[in-house]
Amino acid sequence: MISSSKQRTFGVVLQYAQMALGIIISLAYTPIMLRLLGKTEYGIYNLASSIIAYLSLLSLGFGASYIRFYSIYKRENNQDGIKRMNGLYLLVFTVMGLVSLLGGLVLASNAEIFYNDTYTKEEIEIAKVLMFFLTINLAVSFPVSVFTSYITSQEKFIFQKIINMGKTIISPAVNIVLLYLGYGSIGMVISTTVISLIVDATNIFYCFTKLGMRVSFKSPDFHLLRDIFFFSLFIAMNQLIDQINWQTDKVILGKICSGAAVAVYAVGAQINSMFTSFSTAVSSVFAPKVNLIVSKNEENMDEQLTTLFIKVGRIQWFIMTFVLLGFIFFGQFFISKWAGNDYGNAYWVALLLMAPAIIPLIQNIGIEIQRAKNKHQFRSLVYLIMAILNVGISIWFAMMWGEIGTAIGTTISLLVANGLIMNIYYQKKLGINVIEFWKSIGKTVPGMIIPIACGVCLMLFYKFNSLVDFILLALAYTVIYAISVYFLGMNKEEKDMIDGLFKKFLRR
Fold first, then answer.
1. Residues 6 or more apart from 441 whose CB is under 8 A from it?
2. Which region, left, alpha or beta, applies to residue 495 given φ > 0 means left and ψ of -120 to 50 means alpha?
3. Are residues 55 and 97 in the same domain?
4. pLDDT at position 235, please?
5. What is the pLDDT of residue 142?
């Protein structure tokens, strides 16, 4: 039996292995997809995905509340309560799935309202088919999410990550075959749906046969449903905000500009999505631990949470800064070779989305702390106001500067909401010593000076001549960053962790 702490450690390692694998696959897969689909069809596919993604809001944030209420029942050793809670969640999410299915079918049949006159009738028909299968995939994901939440609550991160790694490999491989056979974006979305169903069935089987998950539909606890609803209401608002910030730009561009503009923005957004995943890989495995600390409600709870906040935030900072700086120095050449010269603006879109996002990304364990303390309402209200302003700014800027304009709108909202307002809230209301957090981050700056200086010199005085140059210089940057940060940026605990991982690797 692997302990919870080792599950978390291996979970983080496997998550990064999955991301590395995903990036490697994406490097080979995305250029093929872009060239076989073409700019317009790729834009249609992304716009259809963004539209259907809004139906995920029907979950009302219930999924994010599962671990919190499970932790309460587990602490009380109330197995009957856990069974009834599982049954309640399954009933509610099945209804949500059916509603999303109906809503998606309505949207698919009226797809033309989301596309302007630059799209042909044939392209609209493709969009309708894409939206139909995306709807099926989403509808099934609602009830299945209960089982994935249960696996997380049991801290079985190794199983989760291995399954996800398998999906990361298989899905693009099948899609490439279908693209070469001429099935286009429709073939892609059908294969993705089938593979997702297989993964879902695997998770359900694992829950019942290996984890002993039990479900009871007798006497549903509607008082619990009320508590879940009020707890989840503001989480649902956060999900709405995320949809506005990360999906609405594509809808705006699809209506105001063209499928080509959507495609360019989508490439930049894809890079930002990979950037974001580097942070959530760490924080996601600490959600059960955060809930446990809060549920114990010990006298030094805030001190424990601040320590965890700083510890996880510093790890995320080292990783995120490495990626962001690397993209600044190497991103333009990378996009030109990876996506093509027609996608040059994707560099600026990605940079405008990534740079301000680094603040919430190194603090995203704070979201788990807010939820565990049931103090996530303020964040939701702030983000909602900023998201609404983001839409207005993005529409205005899109008319002037296209895809770059919409990215600027998102940049402004992220800086104000995350960089300023939420840090004040963490300090004043959540009990997190944010001042100490930023002091700790500031102590890492000496480790960044050398790689930044090298990168700036590279941008000013060198022009990439070949892919070999790019790879060798990227490796050199990686080595310089790692050595500089290790000796000049990390504290003793972090160095000991790196040394321990290195020694284990050498023994094996």
1. 313, 314, 317, 362
2. alpha
3. yes
4. 66
5. 84
Q: DSSP class of residue 182?
A: T
Q: Is there a contact between 68 and 231 (Cβ–Cβ < 8 Å)?
A: yes
How many independent structural domains does the chain possess? 3
Q: Yes or no: say if 452 and 324 are a contact pair by the CB < 8 Å rule.
A: no
pLDDT at position 504 is: 74
- Angle, helices 184-209/121-153, rounded to nearest 10 degrees: 20
* Burial track 122-150 (b if 16+ CB lie within 10 A, e otherwise): ebeebbebbbbbbbbbbbbbbbbbbbbbb
Q: How far apart are CA 213 and CA 123, in angstroms?
A: 45
Both 219 and 266 in one domain: the answer is no
Query: What one-letter code names the amino acid at 350?
Result: A
- Kindly state whether residues 111 and 256 are assigned to the same domain: no
Residue carrying structure tokens 């609405």: 248
> In this structure, is residue 383 part of a structural domain?
yes
Q: 348 and 213 in one domain?
A: no
- Are 275 and 290 within 8 A, CB to CB? no
**Among candidate residues 246, 263, 280, the one where a domain is terminated:** 246
Are both 219 and 287 inside the same structural domain? no
Query: What pLDDT is attached to residue 508?
Result: 59
74 domain-assigned: yes
- Residue 11 has a pLDDT of 57
Q: Is residue 148 part of a domain?
A: yes
pLDDT tens-digit readout, 241-270: 777 776 778 878 877 877 778 888 888 988
Give SS3 for 463: coil
Q: Which of 246, 280, 314 is the last residue of a domain?
A: 246
Q: State whether 195 and 321 are in the same domain.
A: no
Q: What pLDDT does 84 receive?
A: 84
Same domain (yes/no): 324, 187: no
* Closest CA relative to residue 372, chosen from 289, 438, 485, 451: 289
Instruction: Kindly state whether residue 436 falls inside one of the protein's structural domains.
Output: no
Domain around 193: 1-246
Where does residue 422 rank: exposed (0-12), middle (13-18), buried (19+ CB within 10 A)? buried
- Torsion angle of C-alpha atoms 48, 51, 52, 54, degrees rounded to 10: 160
Q: Evaluate whether 111 touches 124 at the Cβ level (below 8 Å).
A: yes
Placement of tokens 């000013």 in the chain:
460
Taken as a whole, the chain contains a residue count of 508
Average pLDDT by stretches of 10, the chain with 508 residues: 56 66 78 84 85 74 70 79 84 87 90 77 89 90 85 76 83 90 90 91 90 81 72 69 74 78 86 78 69 79 90 91 95 88 90 92 87 79 83 88 89 86 90 93 95 93 86 95 95 88 72
Are 255 and 325 in a shared domain? yes
